Amino acid sequence: MLDANRRLATKLYVEGDARERSLDSLRSQVDNDVGDLDVEFELGVRHDD
């Protein structure tokens, strides 16, 4: 098994509930693309703004 870590970044220009909805949408899109593969992914928000 190949063990590789990749980091993709995007900027969310919204706050509060809209940010949570955006993260939910992004999580769903990623799951739709890689959900059938044997991979793990994690989405989160960096707090260094």
From TrEMBL:
All residue ranges annotated as the DUF2110 domain in the record: 8-49
A Pfam family of the record is: DUF2110_N
- Record protein name field: DUF2110 family protein
